[in-house]
Amino acid sequence: MSNILMNKTRSRIVRFLVRNGPATCTEISTKLQAPSSTIRRHLNLLRRAGLVQRTYGEFGASREQVQDQIDDLAASFRRTVMLPSHSVPMNEEHCWPFCRR
């Protein structure tokens, strides 16, 4: 997934497309009660991120496509942020400060 921050509008667009199937920018803006220019800008970002595809003037998203992107992001997160499994064990003696009770 490209470097895209998911905000409320983008999240609403993806959920709308997954639930309702392909739709035009105008249909999405009408249903979500947002300006077409705003929806189009978000759709273009979502398309570049691989969350939405465009076919014959309609935009669509599938559950599988969205889940694949989420899985890729989670894997990337685990590789770059999480400690390797062979590092210090996460018990009460070695826990980060915000883990303590």
Brief summary of the model shown:
The protein is built from 4 helices and 2 strands. It has helices at residues 8-20, 25-32, 36-48, 63-80; strands spanning 53-55, 58-60. It starts with 7 loop residues before the first helix and ends in a 21-residue tail after the last helix.
How would you explain this protein's 3D organization?
With 101 residues, this protein is mainly alpha-helical. The protein has a single domain, classed as Arc Repressor Mutant, subunit A (Orthogonal Bundle), CATH 1.10.10.10. Helices cover 51% and strands 6% of the residues. The protein contains four helices and two strands, in the order H-H-H-E-E-H. It has helices at 8-20, 25-32, 36-48, 63-80; strands at residues 53-55, 58-60. Strands 1-2 form a two-stranded antiparallel ribbon. A hairpin with a 2-residue loop joins strand 1 and strand 2. Helix 1 packs across helix 3 and helix 2 crosses helix 3 (36-48). The longest helix is centred in the C-terminal third of the chain and has 18 residues, at 63-80. It is elongated and about 40 Å long. 14% of the residues are buried.
